[in-house]
Amino acid sequence: MITKNTFTIFILVLFICSLSNCYANEDSTSDIFNKGLDFFNKKEYSKAAKFYKQAADQGDKEAQFNLALLYSDGLGVKQNNAKAVKYLKLAANQGHIKARYNLGVCYERGIGTEQNYNKAVKYYKLASDQGDTHAYYNLGVLYDRGIGVKQDYEKASKYYKLAADQGLIDAQFNLGIMYERGIGVIQNYDEAIKYYKLAANQGDKDAQFNLGFMYENGMGVTQNYDEAVKYYKLSADQGCVNAQYNLGYMYYNGKGVAQNYDEAAKYYKQAADQGDLQSIKQLEKINNYKNENY
Questions:
Q1: Second label for 264, Cα 20 to 30 Å away, from 2, 13, 223, 289?
Q2: Which pLDDT does position 27 carry in this prediction?
Q3: What's the pLDDT at 2?
Q4: Distance between CA atoms of 21 and 101, rounded to whole angstroms?
Q5: Whole-model pTM?
Q6: What kind and span of H or E run contains 292?
Q7: Is the pLDDT of residue 74 over 60?
Q8: How many whole angstroms separate alpha carbon 66 and alpha carbon 48?
Q9: Domains in the chain and their CATH numbers?
Q10: Whole-number pLDDT of residue 290
Q11: 196 near 176, Cβ under 8 Å?
Q12: CB under 8 Å to 127, separation ≥6 — which residues?
């Protein structure tokens, strides 16, 4: 499947924006395209595909893109990733930003075409030149890992920042890591905390854990056990093993909370149930203490 969430978001926007505007255009290709949109809204996908194809064959890039979506998801047509790629290329070559991004995904993952990282980079760059958030992020990942390009942490941080500043959670988290560790950028705990908070406020459990760790250890902030506990709990409640262990530790030692072996055991057990060996040892320690003293 081709980045379904991206497609879904795009089509919803397309419905809202295009239906009100395109009818005013008397161009026959636009009329055909809008008929396809009408049928898509009615969930009559085979009819939508028919009109999209007519408009696509006349060179309409929106129809080409939407037809690619139908082939990707098997809506109204037999699912066929190769045909999805065919129509993505047609739309991408006319400058369609989402077609360019999704074509990059196809080349990166080998969906409907042979895997080709160089072409993935090519289409991601075309989309990024038009401001696509996910293209920025994917380029950041490729430069970060040296896939299809020479590994370059500075370029990775550049693309992560472009995506992060547009609100992409994963980019915010990755940029926080780079600032915390000084990878591709000058080490800067203030910037690390800034981007971790942006991601944490959107619910990223790893960013929440890292913030907890920085507050616990006074990295770039005044040491604050209360804040550490706050972020560890947010992360632990989403299943982060390290946060569960660290929160158990805070309760066990009374840091940022009143000492409470029952609460410590609760979080150690959550981590132990996920296979964390240190938590298993701590649980045994608490149980032995209880057996000896109660």
A1: 223
A2: 54
A3: 34
A4: 25
A5: 0.85
A6: helix 277-293
A7: yes
A8: 9
A9: 1-130 (1.25.40.10), 149-202 (1.25.40.10), 203-294 (1.25.40.10)
A10: 75
A11: yes
A12: 97, 98, 100, 101, 104, 134, 135
Question: Looking at the chain, which runs of residues are DSSP E strands?
Answer: none
By C-alpha distance, which of 161, 85, 155 is closest to 119? 85
DSSP 210-262: HHHHHHHHTSSS---HHHHHHHHHHHHTTT-HHHHHHHHHHHHHTSSS---HH
Helix pair angle (133-145, 169-181), 10° resolution = 40
**Residue 49 pLDDT:** 95
For residue 29, what is the enclosing H or E element? Answer: helix 28-41
pLDDT in tens, 243-262: 999 999 999 999 999 999 99
Query: Helix 225-236 vs helix 241-253: angle between axes, to the nearest 10 degrees?
Result: 140
Residue 12 confidence (pLDDT) above 60: no
Q: Please name which of 95, 106, 183, 113 lies closest in space to residue 138, comparing C-alpha atoms.
A: 106
Average pLDDT value over all residues in the chain: 90
pLDDT at residue 277 above 50?
yes
Residue 8 has pLDDT above 50, yes or no: no
